[in-house]
Amino acid sequence: MALLATHNLTAHYGDFQALFGVDIEINEAETIAIIGANGAGKTTLMRSISGVLRNAPQMVRLETAEIGSAPADEIMAQGVSMVPEGRKLFPSLTVEENLLIGTYGRKIDGHWTLETIYDLFPILKERRNSPGTALSGGQQQMVAIGRALMSNPRVLLCDEISLGLAPVVIKDIYKSIPKIKAAGASLIVVEQDIGQAMAVADRVYCMMEGRITLSGRPDELSRDDIHNAYFGAS
Ligand code: ATP
Fold first, then answer.
1. Is residue 154 a contact partner of residue 108, using CB atoms and an 8 Å limit?
2. Pick from 37, 105, 154, 155: CA 20 to 30 A from residue 81's CA?
3. CA of 5 relative to ligand 1 center, distance in Å
4. pTM of the model
């Protein structure tokens, strides 16, 4: 059985329908990537899984539990945690205070503590008393990932963690993904950068206009397949 699955998931913003019957699944200890152009619906999918956008029942399942209509804090307590697009740190709080916010409502004991987050991102230990505003973009992204990990999630949702960062910083951040997986979490990584997604994912889903247009292992998808799924067949 999949660890997490969506079934015929739809989402609306008022009259506008952003997702049309999305089915994805993620297994234990798996990293999947969701790729797609601007506006394809990737963030909406993440927000639907994490409960920021509420769904009808039956649409999202975590093992045997239906979580589709649960509020976001309950979904987090059950083990699904999101690194939001744009990081969304508390700017006046220190690194350590931002990380500790991630333990709020935590019900799952596990690998992740301040100590293990600092092992993952040593620079955060050096900067633990600095306010969020004093950090570089890459460091802020590390705090956002660390904060989400502090709830000891079974599934970590990462929404465009490379956005706005320099290539060398992106590389650094992406190095943490196999370590997070090795510590027992499954990851859903939303990416516009196809190469980055392919390098890190066990499986990839491509979205276009609110639908999944392609899925498979990176080694079984051709460039043409991906191009067509990303932009539409020409
Ligand atoms: P991006 O890479 O730009 O973040 P995305 O693939 O994550 O794109 P979404 O942000 O999920 O796409 O947007 C999907 C569709 O829903 C787009 O057409 C977008 O304009 C629309 N949309 C997103 N958020 C809202 C909102 N709050 N109100 C109305 N429409 C929205």
1. yes
2. 37
3. 21
4. 0.94
